[in-house]
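INFO worker-7 received task bundle
INFO bundle size: 2
INFO processing item 0
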Amino acid sequence: MKKIFCLIISVFLAGSIFAQVDSELPKGQVELFDGFENGNFWIWAGFDYDQWGSHKISDGANLTKDWASEGSHSLELTMEAMDAASSKSATWFYDGTNDLSGARYLVVDIYNPENYTYNIVAVMQATNEWKWCQAAQYYQIPKGKHTVVYDFREHTQFLNDVHRILINTDNWETYPKESHIYIDNIRIIK
């Protein structure tokens, strides 16, 4: 009985996570943060990031014309194979001081061409103390094109001084080959 109850709860939670991907955008003023049309300002966390924790499997962040949700470019985020011994964790980030006062949501268009579901979250590091402002939850991103809304309402008091924006994946399964996802049309909603 306990196993059946846990299974029912798991199915319900998985459904609620997927229900928030590709839903209607929240009301508010929309501002483009990065459409990848003016260059690449993103970095992948590689071997040098290992000093802060487990090895990140991210191994590239490159502009591409292979897919775009707006304009003609997007950012291709590449990863090493995720074998059983892998951390299955990847990070890409944008560094720069930004005043995102009033921002409540970060919206990202994501294209996953792989036969794998990624768990993706957005994070902002703010103030001179680099306060970790993580969106309310990870989203499971299956194969296909998606618009994802990350909720930062609990961190609004820090977003006037953002020093870094991160896209993180923490994956559970193994994936035996190099893989990639695309992001585009990053915008904030105030």
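INFO item 0 finished
INFO processing item 1
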Amino acid sequence: MRHHINIIALAVRVAMAAASCMAVFYLAMGVFFHLEDGHLLVKDFFSDYFTSITSSVPYRNNEWFGAAFCLIYAGLLIYCVTGLKRFHRSLKRIKKGGMFEPGQDESFRKAAATVVIFAKSKYLLFVTMGSLLYFDLTIFFREIPSFLAVYLIGKFIYLISGMAEKGTFIQEENQLTI
């Protein structure tokens, strides 16, 4: 079991490092939009994310929209890292033998809530930006796989939380009967 926990902990650490690097990148891009020719830079940067439904749609984005998007997304990534860090700490306690400790279920529940809120917020951010500013209606469908992946990971952590809560209850009942 220890080997499996090590693999999950490693994957969580890699996800935290990747999300942290992405947050720094998006923060830097948000600031960089104002230092250089922001209008063209924003247009080039977001052309990878969003494609307009037709070429006749006027391009209405500017550096303020781009900077706001980057700063909000960086904030969401930082928020996700806090939840992943909480999950990683809980995994370390399990690895040390601290199974079904009081408060462990709450720690898992908070980590799961953070991941689920991140998934929903990210989806809303991309869909809002893509549909309102770029009239990119395909963004609704293109963001679903990444949304579902992160959302289901959060729900899986909720499942672990429920098992930890039930395990803690059974352990307390066991200690009272002896």
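INFO item 1 finished
INFO post-check item 1: The chain is about 80% helix and 0% strand.
INFO post-check item 1: The longest helix spans residues 2-35.
INFO worker-7 idle
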